[in-house]
Amino acid sequence: MTELDMKNEIKGYIRNSGFEANSKMLCSIVKLMNMKHADIDKKRVISVTNEIISERI
User: What is the DSSP string of 3-56?
Assistant: First the structure.
């Protein structure tokens, strides 16, 4: 999965959650991404998610 695809999918999860972006979402988003894409690197997902959340705060 490319970085851009991952960012778009994570942004969609945050946008559709109905909540304001915060650090408490990190675990849930990583779990969602791991369930949907079993072969994805968790460390990469964590870093991208942290980056997106810090942009939105």
Answer: HHHHHHHHHHHHHHH-S---GGGHHHHHHHHHHH-TTS-HHHHHHHHHHHHHHH
Which of 49, 2, 4 has its CA nearest to residue 28? Answer: 49
pTM: 0.90
In angstroms, the CA 25 to CA 1 distance is: 21
pLDDT digits (tens, 9 = 90+) for 2-54: 999 999 999 999 999 999 999 999 999 999 999 999 999 999 999 999 999 99
Residue 38 contacts residue 1 (beta carbons within 8 Å)? no
User: Phi and psi (nearest 5°) for 49?
Assistant: -65, -45
